[in-house]
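Ticket 4471: requesting a sanity check on a complex prediction with iron/sulfur cluster. Repro inputs:
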Amino acid sequence: MSNMSNTDNKKDRKSGITRREFIGYSGAAIVGSTLAKPGLAKSNDPHYKPETGMKYRKLGSTDIMLSEVGVGMASGSLSRQLGPFLFDKWRRERGDCLNKLLDLGGNFIDTNVGYHNTVELTGKATKHRRDEIYYVIGHYPRSEKEMRKNLEKALKDLQTDYIDLWFSYINGTDEGFANLRKFQEEGKIRYIGLSQHDPRLHEWAIRKGYVDFIQMPYNRLGMIKQGPADIISAERLFKMAKENGVGIIGIKPLTGNFIPYWANQTNDPEIQEMMKKFKDYGPKNLYQAMLRWNLGNPNITACAVGMDTVEQVIEDVEAVVTRDQYASAMQDELLEDYARLADKDYCRLCTTCVPHCPKGLPIPDILRFRMYYNNYQWGDYAKNLYNELPDYQKAVRCDDCGRCEEHCPYGLKIVENIYHAHSLLTDNKPSVSV
Ligand code: SF4
Ligand code: SF4
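Returned structure tokens:
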């Protein structure tokens, strides 16, 4: 393998396991299941399912048509931070959520062997509908032995003998991808992917010809969380992926919940007015608007969306089904406004302000804890973090000298927000309203 040119490598990999060979490896039971999902077979148009209105796109050069939205399970790795009650509730409702997605024409579930027992929950909930679903499962690439152990466990948990889309999470190495190729030749995985936040690593894997698909965070408000350069390089990556026949699953399409909770809680009249415009215009809420924005990019194949309740599944599918009913220019304008306003509230953790605070307050940490509580709704987790700070670093030590705000390049209202954090995260509430 190491002697091959990159192009040969990809060509060989692509041709090395044909559909036919894959069926041979995996047994007759797979025929007519992975390659022709019954839900799609009912429609003459493989891009559309008339019974539900769901739309589908081809994943790169593979023979897989993915529904425009599927369930992403990353929130399963976070739910425990909400406390045992919500964590158990999330797990109990997994089956209802996943089956509702399938009922509505969705056809993929995206999770990772490291996200608690989400793979097992997925298998239990959907094994009887294997012919309607593509499993998109991630693993952490380590030694071949560990990778094989992870794969075998995932197969057992899913109660299946193959995984449609198997991806490396965070990083990939020449050796790791060579191992995946072996698993592919054994018929245990069909296509290989990489999930990463750094476009340069995706580009490396594409250039090497290692991947059939990639997973990349992408959303309109990404400029707030990452900066304009990240969006530009993401767009460049998507173009490159398309040119090389590599499919793209967009992850974090709803910004990891940063914005929506914030929007609901703010008292800012300008934001409330904008939220009203959103509703008058059509999308029920920002989730739908953001999802439509992502899917407006023709280079994106599909979005893996964290759907924690059946209602959220219905809402996200509705965003796909009704996507063409709204003028995208209007929606773009509203999202643009929203990004501008949200910008005022988001701390990039750049730490520019820190050396200017005479009290030595850990400003970015405090603002982070506030976001955990206020936006992510990780109540206890955020309180515990804040209460671990020594008293001399708590926000009440701030004397409003204003030096931090003078130096914040993003113009954040730091004093107001750290006091707000204190009021949220302790029982000792100073009189401040935000
Ligand atoms: S206003 Fe408060 S947080 Fe900002 S520099 Fe002064 S003491 Fe520190
Ligand atoms: S300077 Fe502004 S953006 Fe940077 S860490 Fe401080 S508050 Fe956050």
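Notes from triage: The longest helix spans residues 228-243. Leaving this open until the requester confirms.
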